[in-house]
Amino acid sequence: MKLFHSLTAAGLLAIAATAPAAALDISGAGATFPYPIYAKWADAYKKETGVGMNYQSIGSGGGIKQIEAKTVTFGATDAPLKGEDLEKNGLVQFPMVMGGIVPVVNIDGVKPGDLVIDGVTLSKIFLGEIKSWDDAAIKKLNPTAKLPAQAIAVVHRSDGSGTTFNFTDYLGKVNPDWKSKVGSDTRWNGRSASAPRAMRAYPPISPRPRAPSVMSSMPTPSRTS
């Protein structure tokens, strides 16, 4: 599917520390999206300093709760906090990594990269206004594609997710109806099936042809000396 939306993961750090940084391993929790690169960084940092890092990829909502409760050294969220929330909890916020949110589909007879879906059409699919793959709006964008007259089965994240926030925020920007009816939030109670965590949002697509889902992706990190 030829649609790509940028995603930035932000780091949340408590201003006051209660123990010397060198005495303990670093603990973190939050967004699943940046987990692969955090794991790479943690491995490289431990080799250089001997200090390890334990990061729980539990979703942006969970990361915010844990850093606000001061149970971790840092939290990570794809949905940035407001200034008043940062001040109230004694936190600072800064960008960490950038990647993309990618809608993916499984349609019999349609090869990867062959399907074109624009933002407005995508929002109407997730609103439930476009219910079949042979809908006129999809056929107009794909005049040569052999689209089945089959119902669209949508899959989305079920947990508190910064990816969901960014995706729903995007849909609200391209379609005023989405903004007024759904808005942007980290948790989305849509009409579709759901699955937890970014790493696991897409397996339902494999056994379920015609199911569009949303997943976050980033370039594979490499280490240079």
Structure description:
The chain starts with a strand and ends in an 8-residue tail after the last strand. Helices cover 29% and strands 22% of the residues. The strands form two sheets. It has a six-stranded mixed β-sheet with strand order 3-2-4-1-5-8. Helix 4 crosses helix 6. With 225 residues, the chain is of the alpha/beta class. It contains seven helices and eight strands, in the order E-E-H-E-H-E-H-E-H-H-E-H-H-E-E. The protein has helices spanning 35-49, 60-68, 83-89, 119-127, 136-141, 162-174, 176-181; strands at 5-14, 26-30, 53-57, 74-77, 91-104, 155-157, 193-195, 213-217.
Q: What is the element layout, followed by pairings?
A:
Blueprint: E1 5-14, E2 26-30, H1 35-49, E3 53-57, H2 60-68, E4 74-77, H3 83-89, E5 91-104, H4 119-127, H5 136-141, E6 155-157, H6 162-174, H7 176-181, E7 193-195, E8 213-217
Parallel strand pairs: 2-3, 2-4, 6-7
Antiparallel strand pairs: 1-4, 1-5, 5-8
Helix pairs in contact: 4-6
